[in-house]
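Work Package 4 report. The design task specified in the project plan requires that, given a folded chain encoded as C-alpha cells, an amino acid be chosen for each position. We show below one input record used in the internal validation round.
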C-alpha cells in the first residue's frame, strides 16, 4: 500500500522555490522561483542576486541612499534569473512558483516567455506601483495568479 501523506505539487514546487531563495545573499529579501511545465517537470530555477560576473562583495546591498549605492539598480530578481537560466525552447503554458509576487519588470518577461500562471507565497508589496502594474499586465495577458495555500505541514531538511 502506498503512502498517502505525501505533499501535493504546489507544496513540492513552492518548497523548491523556498530552498532556492536560500542561495540569495541579499541580507533583507531572499526570493526564489521555480518554473514548471504543464507536465509538472521543473524547467528552471532562480533566486535574486547580482548578475554573473558582478561580485556580490563589490556591489551594494543597501536599500536606502543614492540609487547607485543601493541594490535596486544591480540585483537580478529570482523570476528573471529563472527565465534566463532556462535552456529549453519555450515556456508556453508553464507555471512559476515564486516566494514574492513579481515586480512589473519581471512580469513583462514572464508574459513574453509564455508563463500562464503565477503562484506566490508573499504579496507584501501589493500596494506598490510596481505590483499594481504587474497585476494589471497579468490580467490583460490572461495570466492567472493566486496565492500559495500552505499545507500546514513542516518539512525539515537536514543538510
Amino acid at each position: 500500500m502506498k503512502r498517502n501523506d505525501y505533499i501535493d505539487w504546489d507544496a513540492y514546487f513552492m518548497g523548491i522555490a523556498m530552498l532556492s531563495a536560500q542561495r540569495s545573499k541579499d541580507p533583507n529579501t531572499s526570493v526564489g522561483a521555480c518554473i514548471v511545465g504543464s507536465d509538472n517537470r521543473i524547467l528552471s530555477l532562480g533566486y535574486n542576486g547580482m548578475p554573473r560576473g558582478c561580485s556580490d562583495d563589490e556591489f551594494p546591498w543597501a536599500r536606502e541612499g543614492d540609487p547607485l549605492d543601493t541594490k535596486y539598480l544591480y540585483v537580478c530578481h529570482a523570476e528573471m534569473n529563472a527565465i534566463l537560466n532556462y535552456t529549453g525552447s519555450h515556456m508556453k503554458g508553464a507555471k512559476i512558483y515564486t516566494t514574492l509576487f513579481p515586480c512589473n519588470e519581471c512580469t513583462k518577461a514572464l508574459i513574453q516567455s509564455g508563463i500562464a500562471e503565477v503562484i506566490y507565497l508573499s504579496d507584501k508589496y501589493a500596494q506598490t506601483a510596481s505590483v499594481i502594474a504587474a497585476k494589471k499586465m497579468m490580467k490583460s495577458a490572461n495570466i492567472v495568479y493566486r496565492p500559495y495555500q500552505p499545507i500546514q505541514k513542516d518539512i525539515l531538511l537536514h543538510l
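The radius of gyration is 16 Å. Validation will be extended to a larger panel in the next phase.
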